[in-house]
Design brief:
- The structure is a single chain.
- The chain has four helices and no strands.
- It is mainly alpha-helical.
- The chain folds into two domains: about 70 residues; about 80 residues.
Amino acid sequence: MKGGWRPPFGGAHAALFLGSLTAGLFVASFFMNGMTGHLPVTFSNLVMIPGFLVLIAACADGDVSGKKGLLRSTGMIRLGQWSYALYLIHELVIRMVRGFAAGASVGESAVLAAFVVVTSVVLSGFLHELVEKPAERWLRRRRTTQNPQQVQHS
């Protein structure tokens, strides 16, 4: 991408395309199952892959071009820094809430989903700041004192 090819669409168009695919899956689920069941995961994944590829290409183009945008905002950069901690913590939060989800209405499920997202993000921030960053500093200091000539700064 850096050397030539550019996607013929921007981030807003890519997000709209991905949103349309998502809405299409909900509509298909409603007509096929009457909202009593789910579409096969493989089918859903195959439908969503092009949407995510388009979104990734548009975001990469914006990044390479240096365009200002939502992904370059302070909040999104911070979420990117917290992403590893979020990866570690989100499943624990989901498992903690899963028992409350059984038999929940659509509204209650939406509240639980919002709770999972907010709690996971907040906990990942704490985990990043209180565990990940101190551990990284400790490891970098340790590596520097052991072999100062071979330390590469990125």
